[in-house]
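Quick log. Single chain, no ligands specified.
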Amino acid sequence: MVFFDLPVATAENRRNYAKFRKYLIKTGFVMVQESVYSKLALNTTIANAVMRNVRNNKPPEGLVQMLSITEKQYSRMEFLVGESKGNVIESDERLVIL
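-> predicted structure:
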């Protein structure tokens, strides 16, 4: 998971913000909520590579934080406000054909 709080006071800050956000989406991250993105990595080696790539593409200013958790830990996320989407497929299978 990647959490970030980036400045958007100047045009350059906004460009850096947009570039970083587009990088995350392009590389397979999914927005959990504003400024919180997650990506599934199949093993620790891949997770470490993803984290290294995020470090290499972070903007020069602002706060970017990363947290590595297991799929099982992520699945225990509790929704305190609102409702979880009913169209989410709950499966442990790696391949899901829709």
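The mean pLDDT is 87.
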